[in-house]
Write a structure and sequence with these properties.
Elements: E1 6-11, H1 15-23, E2 29-35, E3 39-41, H2 46-50, E4 60-62, H3 63-66, E5 73-77, E6 80-84, E7 89-92, E8 98-99, E9 102-105, E10 109-111, H4 129-147, H5 152-158, E11 160-164, H6 168-184, E12 198-202, H7 214-226, E13 229-232, E14 237-241, E15 244-247, E16 250-253, E17 256-259, E18 263-265, H8 268-271, E19 282-283, E20 296-298, E21 303-304, H9 317-335, E22 351-356, E23 359-364, E24 367-370, H10 372-385, H11 389-405, H12 423-431
Parallel strand pairs: 1-2, 1-9, 2-5, 9-20, 11-12, 11-17, 12-13, 19-21
Antiparallel strand pairs: 3-4, 6-7, 7-8, 10-18, 14-15, 15-16, 22-23, 23-24
Helix pairs in contact: 1-9, 4-5
This protein binds flavin-adenine dinucleotide (FAD).
């Protein structure tokens, strides 16, 4: 007699969802992996796409290509909008509901504006490939527009870049915008001096990279300063509008605002009518099962799980990957009738953050590293973590080229400096 196959649905193909699917490779199950995009994105290198060091294809890989050989997985591209836990069905925009026996929610996190949702229209965030390409267009476009201006004040406003939030993403972005202006673009313009661009990093706390030991935070501050970034600590942004922002008691006129200040889990807790934990996340038990729902699991940034210290585990790729792999193994064991799976334990492999060329910090097992050694470690770790061999080679070659030439290979703009142009419209304009 053959047993009918269980149907396992995984929502989200980020670090957590992909690890869960791959850990289920030998499971006697039909696995449906749903994502709103057609790719697995390596978010830690997104800032390099945003600052023209890498092209989008270097930091993302088509999901179907990754899972081509895993015949028990079906990939569906679709936007999930609801989970009906009573009838065990997933709601997807413009498609039939997808039923499940077991569900893994791995939809990650989004940026939060601390109740000021209207600020989103005046600022950029860095979370998806579209965001990164949008930031690249805004950065390069600012220099292109400035080149054709004669008024010094207008040029100054166009070449002012403000990053809000001094965590790893804000620090990476600020350091790399400064390098783009002072090294890569420095000799390419005739009317403006790109190196005169102002890059300002606003952090409401009293240190950048506040989660690192204070020695490394101080190193990050001085490394940013040496790149020409104005680091403003204890500076809260209180307004953002179409012309600029207010940071502390100062008004800064600019349209180049990059928000890297707060995150919130994607709204999966609401989909299931659950009381959200901190930052809107789904509370899970030590086996990553959603509290009160034994057939639903949540992993990664969308989940809130207490670590060994009792504090929620951090929003890191390593946490998502380990939880995803754990749930995949737990479900494989459960399908074989083994119910006594040990609880999840996070293995903290340390944290790294990069500031710029040969400038990084690393905190691993109580050991703190900074400067070129940490940067080398950061580069090696990130190369190894890329999901496919093609990306590793492409990223490695790009980095080598950038190292020797100070250049950035992905500087093409696909939108006009004043906004997007539909090529049919533009050609039509010329005809009249
Ligand atoms: C710019 C940046 C830099 C980072 N750098 C680092 C770093 O250096 N080191 C580190 O450890 N961590 C880093 N992180 C954090 C790390 O990327 C996250 O912790 C990790 O991606 C979480 O994995 P996840 O699987 O939970 O979610 P994600 O990787 O975000 O994946 C979520 C997936 O769900 C999909 N999805 C979301 N909503 C829906 C929906 N409604 N329907 C269908 N699909 C949906 C998304 O398309 C996405 O593919 C960085 C994050 C960012 C944004």
């Amino acid at each position: 007699m053959t047993m009918s196959k269980a149907r396992i649905v995984i929502i989200g193909c980020g670090f957590g969802g992909l690890a869960a699917a791959q850990a289920l490779r030998s499971a006697h199950a039909d696995i449906i992996l749903i994502d709103r995009t057609n790719h697995h994105l390596f978010q830690p290198l997104l800032y390099q796409v945003a600052t023209a060091a890498l092209s989008p294809a270097d930091s993302a890989t088509a999901t179907r290509a990754i899972l081509r050989r895993q015949s028990n997985v079906t990939v569906l591209m679709g936007e999930v909008t609801g989970i009906d836990t009573m009838n065990r069905r997933i709601e997807i925009v413009g498609a039939d509901d997808v039923p499940y026996d077991l569900l893994v929610v791995a939809t990650g996190a989004a940026y939060s504006y601390f109740g000021h949702g209207d600020w989103a229209q005046f600022s950029h965030v860095l979370k998806t490939l579209e965001d990164a390409v949008g930031i690249r267009g805004a950065l390069l476009g600012a220099f292109e527009r400035a080149e054709s201006q004669t008024d010094a004040e207008t040029v100054g406003r166009l070449l002012t870049f403000v990053v809000v939030g001094g965590g790893p993403t804000g620090v990476e972005l600020a350091g790399n915008i400064a390098e783009l202006a002072r090294s890569t673009l420095a000799r390419d313009f005739r009317n403006i001096n790109p190196a005169s661009a102002r890059v300002i990093l606003c952090e409401s706390g009293n240190a950048v990279l506040g989660e690192f030991p204070s020695r490394l935070s101080r190193y990050a501050s001085s490394a940013l300063a040496s790149l020409g970034v104005e680091v403003r600590l204890n500076t809260t942004v209180t307004t953002i509008d179409a012309q600029g922002l207010t940071a502390g008691d100062q008004r800064i006129e600019t349209r180049n605002i990059f928000w890297a200040a707060g995150t919130t889990a994607r709204p999966a807790a609401q989909w299931m009518n659950l009381q959200p934990a901190q930052h809107g996340a789904i509370s899970v038990d030590p086996r990553c099962a959603v509290i009160g729902l034994t057939d639903v699991f949540a992993v990664g940034d969308v989940a809130s799980q207490a670590g060994a210290s009792g504090q929620p585990l951090p929003g890191l790729a390593a946490v998502a990957k380990q939880q995803g792999a754990y749930v995949g193994k737990l479900l494989s064991a459960r399908l074989k009738g083994k119910d006594n799976f040990p609880p999840f334990r996070y293995r903290d492999l340390g944290t790294l953050a990069v500031i710029g060329r040969a400038r990084a910090v690393a905190h691993l097992g109580g050991v703190s590293l900074s400067g070129a050694a940490a940067w080398l470690l950061w580069s090696l770790v990130h190369l190894m973590l890329l999901v496919d061999f093609r990306s590793r080679i492409a990223v490695y070659l790009n980095w080598m080229w950038s190292w020797f030439t100070y250049g950035r290979g992905a500087r093409l703009m696909t939108t006009a400096p004043h906004g997007s142009i539909n090529s049919a419209e533009r050609d039509d304009d010329k005809a009249h």
